[in-house]
TrEMBL record:
<keyword id="KW-0274">FAD</keyword>
<keyword id="KW-0285">Flavoprotein</keyword>
<keyword id="KW-1015">Disulfide bond</keyword>
<dbReference type="InterPro" id="IPR023753">
    <property type="entry name" value="FAD/NAD-binding_dom"/>
</dbReference>
<feature type="binding site">
    <location>
        <position position="53"/>
    </location>
    <ligand>
        <name>FAD</name>
    </ligand>
</feature>
<dbReference type="GO" id="GO:0006103">
    <property type="term" value="P:2-oxoglutarate metabolic process"/>
</dbReference>
<dbReference type="GO" id="GO:0004148">
    <property type="term" value="F:dihydrolipoyl dehydrogenase (NADH) activity"/>
</dbReference>
<keyword id="KW-0547">Nucleotide-binding</keyword>
<feature type="binding site">
    <location>
        <begin position="185"/>
        <end position="192"/>
    </location>
    <ligand>
        <name>NAD(+)</name>
    </ligand>
</feature>
<dbReference type="GO" id="GO:0045252">
    <property type="term" value="C:oxoglutarate dehydrogenase complex"/>
</dbReference>
<feature type="binding site">
    <location>
        <position position="208"/>
    </location>
    <ligand>
        <name>NAD(+)</name>
    </ligand>
</feature>
<feature type="binding site">
    <location>
        <begin position="329"/>
        <end position="332"/>
    </location>
    <ligand>
        <name>FAD</name>
    </ligand>
</feature>
<feature type="disulfide bond" description="Redox-active">
    <location>
        <begin position="44"/>
        <end position="49"/>
    </location>
</feature>
<dbReference type="GO" id="GO:0050660">
    <property type="term" value="F:flavin adenine dinucleotide binding"/>
</dbReference>
<feature type="domain" description="FAD/NAD(P)-binding">
    <location>
        <begin position="7"/>
        <end position="338"/>
    </location>
</feature>
<dbReference type="InterPro" id="IPR012999">
    <property type="entry name" value="Pyr_OxRdtase_I_AS"/>
</dbReference>
<dbReference type="InterPro" id="IPR006258">
    <property type="entry name" value="Lipoamide_DH"/>
</dbReference>
Length: 478
């Protein structure tokens, strides 16, 4: 600790990224402060992963018990399922408070000083904080980590009243269940809420501006996911249309415009609208100019060591992690970046490998992926001159999936046919979010499919879907 500074490290933002950085730095013996203007834990804990997964857990159970046809195949006959919306909401809210409390305690126990207020840069080694009472203080520090996260992006023309027209910030509270809800956007947040709402008896329409629904997912995964998550639930989809105007009220009025011709094609009236059209970085009012940061579409540019950049130049002592950097905007990415930033602050030279970070959508069944998309893999293969291998392994050939009567699933593995190196994987099916991890680990360890195909998997488990893919791939390596 350098006594010329108030702190060794000041972290702005106590989401997953900031939490990880602050805790890790304190454990390494640094004197650390973390500044938070909202709720400790940020998006993930308060409005993201934690409450949404609590809702999905409850709605998944409702779905399972209410799926009489499925149960009858086991010879089980259930009586009509009854649920209390408010109790499901309580489950999510209680979980949020518990996780938030634990996270705050953990930080305190690690010796991190928590400062409540809105932080901003005042140069490379100075941070200003304005608290809720308007009191402004300046602190000096050797290093700064920006971890200010992101907020829902709301396209122009859409007015929120946070009751009938709202974002995931409100949806996670499950304050009411619209009879008919329109979800704008078919990314992972839109899909997860479609899963919750349909399980709880709402009628859902998904509106997507791009040509196809689920545009960010692998096309083979989309095909099977559409059948299971959309068609089988009678979700109406409208793609290639912009919701150009949404007026809150009872009913909510939606004006839909053709994405290409820009002509109004439809007017809808629904009970509620969830706007799930992506996230925007929280990079305003941070006085970024004071150190020469120029954001790119609002995101703070960083290198693979989490150093903030101005063009090619490194801005000394300033680091950034998490959603505000725009890289694979997930909680575990933010945390991984937080650890790496601190290691590098302490003199290491560690770089992140985004190619081995998995992503999941926690619908029933789940969707997951890691590494390259097939399109990107094709492009890289032709640029680098190797042959791309693609194998598919099906849940319908897996004993565990068959025993569970959950055999609609697919794993697509992308690999280098010359070296056997794993490049990416995309999964749809039961427990896909857990299954992806072993492939992510293989990518991170730079293993090849010859080696991986010799690893023995437990029988009968879903992990054998991965084993089959590895074996198939190994047989194709030249
Ligand atoms: P945030 O969590 O956004 O935290 C930033 C914090 O900084 C906030 O608390 C904010 O109040 C504070 N802040 C901002 N500006 C200032 C300032 N100037 N001064 C002081 N404090 C400031 N990710 C997953 O990995 N798995 C999931 O299942 C998942 N589900 C999600 C579901 C939903 C509905 C949503 C919206 C997101 C989900 N995510 C999920 C994404 C995940 O929540 C984010 O990637 C993660 O929270 C990013 O962490 P962060 O630390 O970068 O930022």
């Amino acid at each position: 600790t350098d006594t010329n500074f108030d702190f060794d490290l000041i972290v702005i933002g106590a989401g997953y990224g900031g939490f990880d950085a602050a805790k890790h730095a304190a454990e390494k013996g640094l004197k650390v402060a973390i500044i938070e203007s909202g709720d400790m834990g940020g998006t993930c804990v308060n409005k993201g992963c934690v409450p949404s997964k609590a809702l999905l857990a409850a709605s998944g159970k409702v779905r399972e018990i209410a799926n009489y046809e499925h149960l009858a195949k086991f010879g089980i006959h259930a009586s009509p399922v009854r649920f209390e919306r408010s109790k499901i909401a309580d489950h999510a809210n209680n979980l949020v408070s518990n996780v938030r409390e634990n996270l705050t305690k953990t930080l305190k126990r690690s010796g991190v000083e928590i400062i409540l207020g809105f932080g901003r840069l005042e140069g490379n080694q100075k941070v200003g904080v304005r608290d809720n009472n308007g009191i402004d203080r300046i602190f000096t520090c050797k290093n700064i980590v920006l971890a200010t996260g992101s907020s829902p992006f709301v396209p122009p023309g859409i007015t929120l009243d946070n009751r009938t027209v709202f974002t995931s910030d409100e949806a996670v509270k499950l304050e009411w269940l619209p009879r008919w809800i329109a979800i704008i956007g078919s990314g992972y947040i839109g899909l997860e809420f479609a899963d919750v709402y349909t399980a709880l008896g709402c009628e859902v329409t998904i509106i997507e501006a791009l040509e196809n629904i689920m545009p960010t997912f692998d096309p083979d995964i989309t095909k099977i996911a559409k059948k299971n998550l959309i068609q089988s639930r009678d979700i109406d989809t409208k793609s290639n249309v912009f919701a150009t105007k949404i007026t809150p009220g009872c009913p909510v009025k939606i004006e839909l415009t053709d994405a290409k011709s820009k002509e109004i094609v439809e007017n809808l009236e629904v009970d509620g609208v969830l706007v799930a059209t992506g996230r925007s970085p929280n990079s305003k009012n941070l006085n970024l100019d004071s150190v020469g940061i120029e954001t790119i579409k609002g995101y703070i540019p960083i290198d693979d060591q989490m150093r903030v950049l101005n063009g090619e130049k490194i801005i000394p002592n300033v680091w950034a992690v998490g959603d505000v950097t725009g890289k694979l905007m997930l909680a575990h990415t933010a945390a991984a970046q937080g650890t790496i930033a601190v290691e590098n602050i302490c003199g290491e030279n560690i770089e992140i490998n985004y190619g081995s970070i998995p992503a999941a959508t926690f619908t029933h069944p789940e969707i997951s992926s890691v590494g390259l998309s097939e399109t990107d893999a094709k492009e890289i293969a032709s640029k680098e001159g190797f042959t791309l291998g693609v194998v598919k392994s099906y849940f319908k050939a897996n004993s565990k999936a068959l025993a569970e009567l959950e055999s609609d699933g697919i794993l697509k593995l992308l690999f280098n046919k010359d070296s056997g190196k794993v490049l990416g994987a995309h999964i749809f099916g039961m427990h896909a979010a857990d299954l992806i991890q072993e492939i992510a680990n293989a990518i991170s360890r730079n293993q090849d499919v010859m080696q991986l195909s010799t690893e023995v998997h437990t029988h009968p488990t879903l992990s054998e879907v991965v084993e089959v893919a590895y074996k198939q791939a190994a047989s194709q390596v030249k």
